[in-house]
Specification:
The structure holds two protein chains of two kinds.
Chain A: E1 5-7, E2 10-13, E3 19-24, E4 31-37, E5 43-50, E6 53-57, E7 65-68, E8 75-79, E9 88-95, E10 104-105, E11 109-113
Parallel strand pairs in A: 2-11
Antiparallel strand pairs in A: 1-3, 3-8, 4-5, 4-9, 5-6, 7-8, 9-10, 9-11
Chain B: E1 4-6, E2 11-14, E3 19-25, E4 32-38, E5 45-51, E6 54-58, E7 61-66, E8 71-76, E9 85-92, E10 104-109
Parallel strand pairs in B: 2-10
Antiparallel strand pairs in B: 1-3, 3-8, 4-5, 4-9, 6-7, 7-8, 9-10
The chains are: A mainly beta, B mainly beta.
């Protein structure tokens, strides 16, 4: 069964460093998302991406965040200058060709900022 | 008022019990109603999907939507220890942003 894959599974970085989280969505999906979940808290929407541009973003997704689909398969989230409060599990998700809201999630990247 | 509200639990039941999980929402524009299941340290997994009001059944799971009272329910029959997880409700408008409730933690004791 096709699945969303995320790498790395764990990322440790120093405060102020840049990190890139990588995702390979399901191949025929058209909508791509990043969510995050701080330990013990709810799953929070960050950004959605369609047709090579951001469709919607939350207040969390400020100027230090960016997303990119550099080729036909990868979808990346870059955090330019990490802060301690960026420590969280980051989930990538994708959705098929209509906005029926059936999201397929990856297993996540646990980001720890020291 | 929060857009989506769930009782965080935890809810602890014996194996074989019927479980009722509930969620309320405030946005009357929601048309799609999803329940996701999340195991510890894993991504959410779509469990049930309903469009507009009514009931939907899938095996031991039944999803119920009452748009007039903005109330969503998930029932689990014959609960199993493998059902122990956090259950997230996620109503949506069919747009580009799915909002999740905080989730209800369920423990099914063998």
């Amino acid at each position: 069964e096709p699945e969303v894959t995320q790498t790395p599974s764990h990322q440790v970085t120093q405060m102020g460093q840049e990190v890139i989280l990588r995702c390979v969505p399901i191949s025929n999906h058209l909508y791509f998302y990043w969510y995050r979940q701080i330990l013990g808290q709810k799953v929070e929407f960050l950004v959605s991406f369609y047709n090579n541009e951001i469709s919607e973003k939350s207040e969390i997704f400020d100027d230090q965040f960016s997303v990119e689909r550099p080729d036909g398969s990868n979808f990346t989230l870059k955090i330019r200058s990490t802060k301690l409060e960026d420590s969280a599990m980051y989930f990538c998700a994708s959705m098929p060709g209509e906005t029926n809201e059936k999201l397929f999630f990856g297993s996540g990247t646990q980001l720890s900022v020291l | 008022q929060k857009e989506v509200e769930q009782d965080p639990g935890p809810l602890s039941v014996p194996e074989g019990a019927i479980v009722s999980l509930n969620c309320t929402y405030s946005n009357s524009a929601f048309q799609y109603f999803m329940w996701y299941r999340q195991y510890s340290r894993k991504g959410p997994e779509l469990l049930m999907y309903t469009y507009s009001s009514g009931n939907k059944e899938d095996g031991r799971f039944t999803a119920q939507v009452d748009k007039s009272s903005k109330y969503i329910s998930l029932f689990i029959r014959d609960s199993q220890p493998s059902d122990s997880a956090t259950y997230l409700c996620a109503p949506g408008t069919g747009g580009f942003k799915t909002i999740f409730g905080a989730g209800t933690r369920l423990f099914v004791k063998a």
